[in-house]
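Structure tokens please, single chain.
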Amino acid sequence: MAKSSANSENPRFSASFPHTHSISDSVALRIHSDTKPHNMKIANLQKGLILLYKGAEVIGEGTGFGVPIAKYSDETVFSGSSSLQVRSTKNIVEIRKEFIMDLVTRDKLRNLKLENQKIRTLLDYVSTLYKNQYQSHVRFARSILLARSLFFKFGVKSTFVRSTHKGAIVVTYIIDRNRILVKLDLSLLERTNLGKIFVLNEQGAHFFRTYSDSESLKLDDEAIGAWNDVTSQSAKITNEQDKIGFSLKNIEGTKLRRGRELIKGSLDWIGLDYELDAEHSQFEYEIEVFG
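Here you go.
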């Protein structure tokens, strides 16, 4: 495991991974060079920065901090490959992860691929209904969540397969005490038919259960929703005791959304995700970690 060179005057690149950086006696951040941890549906996706509490990763089925997704007119593209560099100067750690955008989703029923367009359209329709209806029709949305759970129970699963290479997104994390500056370079991404770019900041829903924001809104568990707009200046995700968590700010020209889903064996994520227009070539924001 790579160690931070806190006493060195010169930057030093890490040669071994994962890299773990302590923030406090109980909270740390970790980055993997591969797709670990291999949890549930997104086992084969590259992850961002992972929160640790007392040495244990609390990412669940989340993606970690600062993970990009590119939505094109015909496909949504994820990262299954990457390159990683870490360097430390005194108490500041700089991590550079290049996310190769090379995976798309396909649904399967047990070992049979669901290439039937009607079935794929139905699955997409259920997902869209859930996202669009949650805030105004909570009971209806919960029934859709149950339907998604049944899909999983009876063997309908999303898998990620290699696709046409869509370029890369370089994410740089600069960790200074309990603050993380996240910088995205989107200039290497294929632009043809690109619609939106999403930046995910997710950890585990089993550990983090509370949302609060600067407009004094506080929500727990299912009340958080799965894809709701954040209208406040800032928002925070914490554990049940409000002692450990992370916060982000709304940024002009983007959309910030909150979400949480927890289904045993299928979904386990909570997060604050940005949506960017395709015109963005650079994007940066800050995460504050508590605890």
